[in-house]
Every structure is written in structure tokens, then in C-alpha cells.
Write a structure and sequence with these properties.
The structure is a homodimer.
Chain A: E1 2-5, H1 10-21, E2 27-30, H2 43-46, E3 54-57, E4 60-63, H3 65-77, H4 86-116, H5 122-140, H6 153-163, H7 176-186
Parallel strand pairs in A: 1-2
Antiparallel strand pairs in A: 1-3, 3-4
Chain lengths: 197, 197
């Protein structure tokens, strides 16, 4: 099972993190991102979006980090990471949407500006980041884990760009509950760091 | 089962559309959006995000339209709308992420500017819309439905803000495959329109 990967991508790191925590073997294929390999064939044949990560498992090809988390956890990771009950799946999907929307366009976008020089509206990214980090901190004041009473793919999806927030010029120190959640994730057996976390 | 609803919200319409297609009874509760009822208690007690839709089913409260689709389909709609196999769920989640990210921040954001006067960067929204509509059209050139070989919650999640694109000043006529997919959705038994589609 191949993961087309960029080490510095938080979206790729979501997948590597789950694989490490759930002990799912992955064949990591580093992609020449600076050279634009993800923007041309053969990678655009696998993912016309021109983005990473991409997972290839036999005939199955998946784009989108949230979808890859669902696949890996559901197929290989066991129900503790992605339960089979629709109600619990829905609790988790709330946070997969948050990862794809508010986190990506908040702390994720701020980091793209500062670390990779993207011409995104930085004040807008910081405004979005402040809102979602406040909501996240309030939620974590009464929850150890995001979606259910144990770590799931919800935590894997939201964690990377929150833990990397300082690379977008965002100070996490006002968010004490987020800080404790980050520490809980880092103490999980098998935890895999990435540069910047 | 209560849906706190705004008729003109594409995110609320996602839920009403699935409920109509899958024949799931919902008690629709209109919210005084212009009066800001979603931004204060008791609604912020249900959803601290201050957003609609919100679903309440007994003790369970869900925010986020994608999560509500998973819950309704998985619990009440049957496996045709949300299958139980992780591989098929992952195919669908790809499009739930697309709905929460590229569609929301593309055609969805353009409509917020034109129809509701939001001070969002309209050229950025149009640029994002052009990219995702092109990718969507190319995908639909070889697929009748987004995720698997039948309509699923993937189609319910992506459809509203695509079908409402003209309200953001976006012309869908160059996207012939999207046009045919829109027509297929409109011909489904039980289809429910919304103003603007």
C-alpha cells in the first residue's frame, strides 16, 4: 500500500500519524513537490486535483486526507479509530469537515503564507484561525478527545495544522485545553512527530 | 427529529434534499437567521459554532451538514445512501471534504457575497469556483454519480452550492457534464427543489 507523500505537508502527516498509531504498514513514496511532480502525470492520473497525499492500495486510489483516514482505519485500523455505528461516525465526520474547512483555511492557510510563501490573505487566515482555535479550546475544556471518549481519526485529522500553528505565526499559549490535548496525542503509544510539531 | 433550518442555506438544503430522497421524516424548525437567533442561546447551546443546520434526535445533537448526512443516511436512510464498507465510505468522504472545502469556499462563498452581502474576497471565490467546477465536470464526464455507481450522500453534499452557482454570478453553461448531473439529480424520485436551483 503506497502513500505518495510530502514530509512537510500536514495533510500527509495526518495519514502517517494514523498509520503509526494504528500500526498500519505504509510504503511511503516521497514526491518531488518543489519540482511540481504532483501537478503532472503520472501523479495527476492518480489524482487530477494535483494534490497530496494520494493512497494506492491495489486497484483503489484515494485522494483527500480525510477519506484516506476513513479507508485506512475502517479497513486496517479497527473500529476504535473509525467505529461502525453511524451515530459515532457522524460525531467524527463533524471534525473531518472542520479539518477540511476551518482548520485548512485558518491555521493551515496561515502556515502556507509564512512557511511556503503562498499569496493567500493572511489576515483572513488569522481571523479564521482565532475563531476555530477558540471553539476547539472550549470543546476540549470538557472533552479529552474530539469526537468520542477515545482517540479517533477525528483527532488525527485536526491535530496536524493545530500543532503546526506556530509556523503560521499563531501563538497557542492562550489555548490551555488545546495544549493539554496536544500533549495527550503526543503521549499515545506509537506517536510519530513531524518537523514543526 | 428536529432540523433547525434556514430555507435559503445550501447547507441546510443538503439535509432536506437527502431526507426527501430517502423518505426520512424531519420536523423542520425555521430559525430567525436575520435576527441572529443562531448566534445566541438556546441555539448556541446546541451548536457553539453559531451555524445552521443543527439536527436534534433525542439526546443526540449534530452540527455540520456533512455529519448530519452521514447520521441520517446511516441510521435511517439505508446502505444505498451511505454504505457500510469502509472503501465505499472513503470514496464518499472524498466528496464530503470537497463540499466542506472547495465547494464551500468557491461557489458557496461567491453566493454569500452576491446574495447576502458578505465581505468575502469575491475574485478569490471565483478563482476557487473555476478550479473545482472544472475538476467536477471532468470527473462527471466519466461518472454518472460522484462517488459510486448510484446516488449517495456525496451527491447531496456537493449538489446545492453547484446548482446555486448562478446566484454567485457563475455561469454553469460551459460545464456540460455538470449540467447533465444536475438534471439526473432533479429527476430522482422524491427530489425536493430549493429557491434558486
Amino acid at each position: 500500500m503506497k502513500l505518495y507523500d510530502l514530509e512537510l505537508s500536514g495533510n500527509c502527516y495526518k495519514v502517517r500519524l494514523l498509520a503509526a498509531l494504528a500500526q498500519i504498514p505504509l510504503d511511503i513514496v516521497p514526491v518531488d513537490f518543489l519540482g511540481g511532480a504532483h501537478k503532472r502525470p503520472p501523479l495527476t492520473d492518480l489524482n487530477p486535483w494535483g494534490e497530496l497525499p494520494i493512497l494506492v492500495d491495489g486497484d483503489r486510489v484515494l485522494r483527500d486526507s480525510q477519506a484516506i483516514l476513513v479507508y485506512l482505519a475502517g479497513r486496517y485500523g479497527g473500529a476504535s479509530w473509525w467505529p461502525t455505528e453511524p451515530a459515532l461516525q457522524a460525531e467524527i465526520v463533524q471534525w473531518l469537515s472542520t479539518a477540511a474547512n476551518e482548520i485548512q483555511h485558518g491555521p493551515g492557510a496561515a502556515r502556507l503564507v509564512d512557511k511556503f510563501g503562498y499569496t493567500i490573505d493572511k489576515p483572513d487566515a488569522l481571523r479564521r484561525a482565532g475563531r476555530i482555535l477558540g471553539l476547539l479550546d472550549a470543546h476540549l475544556a470538557t472533552h479529552d478527545w474530539l469526537a468520542v471518549s477515545r482517540p479517533t481519526i477525528a483527532d488525527c485529522a485536526v491535530y496536524p495544522y493545530v500543532a503546526l500553528a506556530s509556523e503560521g505565526g499563531i501563538d497557542l499559549s492562550p489555548y490551555a485545553h488545546i495544549g493539554r490535548w496536544v500533549a495527550r496525542i503526543k503521549s499515545l503509544p506509537g506517536y510519530l512527530p513531524m518537523p514543526g510539531t
